[in-house]
TrEMBL record:
PANTHER family associated with the record: AMINO ACID IMPORT ATP-BINDING PROTEIN (PTHR43166), PHOSPHONATES IMPORT ATP-BINDING PROTEIN PHNC (PTHR43166:SF4)
Pfam families named in the record: ABC_tran (PF00005)
Organism this protein belongs to: Lederbergia graminis
Native organism taxonomy: Bacteria, Bacillati, Bacillota, Bacilli, Bacillales
PROSITE patterns in the record: ABC_TRANSPORTER_1, ABC_TRANSPORTER_2
Protein name (record): Amino acid ABC transporter ATP-binding protein
Record keywords, A-Z: ATP-binding, Nucleotide-binding, Transport
Length: 240
């Protein structure tokens, strides 16, 4: 579903992604961990072309992301992204937040878009908040709306960049539970997170990044029990 081949990226002179090779299969959950500044967000953002790559090849669901001929809007339609800050429209209701893109981008009629929105709101456990405004919801509820909004576009892939980092501790679990159920339903997911419990339980592969490189790739059981590099051992000592 996603394949990086010798991908490099520079910000000016700064070599932020160094020779990245990564394959994510359909229905796989890949969890990306690593110290702050190691390039995790940048790698994620290359997948939906929020960042351009400098060289190499990146293919998502058969589409060559950085080919000049690629229609970026079409690409993004199939890739949902959830950020640390939920970025909901404050003056629109939950239902309007979710139906906006299906109506304006996919051209769905309002009634169908609302039915789809209610289906996903129910899935994330907050159907009763459909007519509330974001400010009336807790952080955990807002993040679940953001996930429902992504799902309403029926993407092939969901990307999560530290989706629980801005939440109060008591709300982290409800968001991780939604992500676990998505994984169980077979969604292809790439998740940047510091939630090592989630990584252990849900990941098919763990990617450990440091200084722009993928330093380790492995099954969670192997990675957590027996990290191969000093850098990964150091990192785990600090986060576990
Ligand atoms: P992570 O998500 O692992 O914390 P990032 O991908 O956000 O790391 O950043 C990796 C490095 O690239 C950091 O040193 C950061 O300062 C730098 N960086 C990120 N975005 C930009 C940008 N737009 N311009 C220049 N440097 C950037
Ligand atoms: Mg980041």
């Amino acid at each position: 579903m996603i394949s990086f081949r010798n991908v490099n990226k520079f910000f000016g002179d700064f070599h932020v992604l160094k020779d990245i090779n990564l394959d994510v299969k359909q229905a796989e959950v890949v969890v990306v961990v690593g110290p702050s500044g190691s390039g995790k967000s940048t790698m994620l953002r290359c997948i939906n072309h929020l960042e351009a790559i400098t060289d190499g090849e990146l293919v998502v669901n058969g589409i060559n992301v950085h080919d000049k001929k690629t229609n970026i809007n079409e690409l993004r339609r199939n890739i949902g992204m959830v950020f640390q800050h939920f970025n909901l429209y404050p003056h629109k209701t939950v239902l309007q937040n979710i139906t906006l893109a299906p109506i304006h981008v996919l051209g769905e009629d309002k009634k169908k878009a609302e039915e789809t929105a209610m289906f996903y709101l129910d899935k994330v456990g907050i159907a009763e908040k459909a007519n509330s405004y974001p400010s009336q919801l807790s952080g955990g509820q807002q993040q679940r709306v953001a996930i429902a909004r992504g799902l309403a576009m029926k993407p092939h892939v969901m990307l999560f960049d530290e989706p629980t980092s801005a939440l109060d501790p008591e709300m982290i679990g409800e968001v991780l539970d939604v992500m676990k159920s998505l994984a169980k339903d077979g969604m292809t997911m790439v998740v940047v997170t510091h939630e090592m419990g989630f990584a252990k339980e849900v990941a098919d592969q763990i990617i450990f990044m440091d200084e722009g490189k993928i330093v380790e790739v492995g099954k969670p059981a192997e990675f957590f029990a027996n990290p191969q590099t000093e850098r990964a051992r150091d990192f785990l000592k600090r986060v576990l």
